[in-house]
Design goal:
Layout lengths: L2 E7 L6 E3 L6 E3 L5 H4 L8 E7 L11 H14 L5 E5 L5 H11 E2 L5 E4 L12 H12 L2 E2 L2 E2 L4 E5 L2 E4 L4 E2 L8 E2 L7 E3 L3 E3 L14 E2 L7 E5 L8 H4 L5 E6 L9 H12 L3 E6 L15 H6 L2 E2 L5 H11 L9 H5 L13
Parallel strand pairs: 1-4, 1-5, 5-7, 7-10, 17-18, 18-19, 19-20
Antiparallel strand pairs: 2-3, 6-16, 8-9, 10-11, 11-14, 12-13, 14-15
Length: 341
């Protein structure tokens, strides 16, 4: 039986071709994708296309566009076996992470991919990313989807979306999942690590939770930064602080005073690490104790992208019981380790 995959084209380099008159890149009509990649006809799946009215650079993708992708998936969920989202690479990890939190009770693959070079270039990575992305989006065994989560496929690797970050603007191997194993890998054989795949532990039916709040600020501290800067920022409900190592910050009375003031003003403070690998461990070093003292929230080993989109999804969300802090510390869809490092 041929599986049906819906291709959702949002924009990005993968959908561009060079105008040889002007020399600039322009989007092409994805309805003609089979002319660009005739191998698509050899796959054991049927492909339909849903395109954004105007292809967007990934830097223009945000909460409204995430909702647009989610709406397409919700409307077509019963009609297709899987979804392949073509997206620009710069913010793909944000969009894919956001969708992982929004799509509840997901039992089908939602695979994001893109490319570093346009699909028409001689040395492009678009062809392999596109074709193998389709493979994973249509992969079923015993009438059940093998992948039942939001994932990113890029340069031979299938990665959990909310564990992924873009670390290179130059190399084809542009994405990494430093704190979680690879879900699948493409080589001579197309492999899947079934033990690493996420599975919903409840019988929750598929639905979309569209709630996203923008009352959030992300701030990276740096040596010598005056802590008073944080009190001069617009007041927000959630401040995500990206701190040193496993959770340290300047050891001073002013640091604690500023953080306490923020907490007294009603701001929840989430702490994530500037390190690519590893995570937060309050109490491991003395200079992390201030966060426990003021009631900050450990981000464990969340990527910055997942921490931001998780906070956007949970803040003031009426579909969750309990406080923001209680909900943020729960593992929702495999986005972080259950325990601190």
């Amino acid at each position: 039986m041929k599986r049906k995959v819906l291709l959702i084209y949002t924009g990005g380099t993968i959908g561009m071709e060079k105008d040889y008159v002007s020399g600039s890149l322009k989007p092409f009509n994805f309805e003609h994708i089979a002319k660009k990649i005739p191998e698509i006809n050899l796959l054991e799946c049927e492909v339909a296309i849903s395109s954004f009215p105007e292809p967007l650079d990934s830097s223009d993708m945000g909460p409204e566009e995430w909702k647009q992708i989610a709406t397409i998936i919700e409307e077509e969920y019963t009609h297709y076996d899987g979804f392949l989202v073509l997206h620009g690479t710069d913010t793909m990890a944000y969009s894919a992470s956001a969708l992982s939190f929004m799509l509840k009770g997901l039992r089908k693959p939602v695979i994001f991919t893109g490319s570093q070079l346009p699909i028409g270039d001689l040395r492009t990575d678009a062809r392999e990313n596109f074709l193998t992305g389709l493979y994973y989006a249509s992969l079923y065994e015993h009438d059940e989807a093998v992948v039942q989560e939001v994932a990113i496929y890029f340069e031979y690797k299938l990665l959990r979306a909310n564990r992924t970050l873009k670390y290179s603007a130059e190399y084809f191997d542009a994405y990494s999942s430093p704190n979680y194993e690879i879900l699948g890998q493409s080589g001579v054989h197309l492999n899947v690590d079934k033990e690493a795949l996420f599975r919903n532990s409840t019988d929750e039916l598929f639905r979309v939770d569209y709630h996203l709040s923008s009352d959030i600020l992300f701030w990276r501290i740096f040596p010598g930064m005056p802590m008073d800067y944080l009190l001069k920022l617009p007041q927000v409900k959630v401040l995500i602080l990206q701190v040193f190592g496993s959770g340290t910050i300047f050891h001073s009375a002013k640091s604690e005073k500023v953080l306490r003031t923020l907490r007294e003003q009603g701001t929840d403070i989430v702490v994530v690490s500037q390190c690519v690998s590893g995570g937060i461990s309050f109490g491991k070093y003395e200079n992390s104790n201030v966060f426990s003292a003021v009631g900050a929230i450990s981000g464990h080993d969340l990527t910055a992208e997942a921490a931001i989109t998780k906070a956007m999804h949970l803040l003031d969300n009426p579909n969750y019981k309990g406080s923001f802090a209680e909900n943020f510390q729960q593992v929702l869809c495999g986005e972080m380790s259950a325990e601190e490092f």
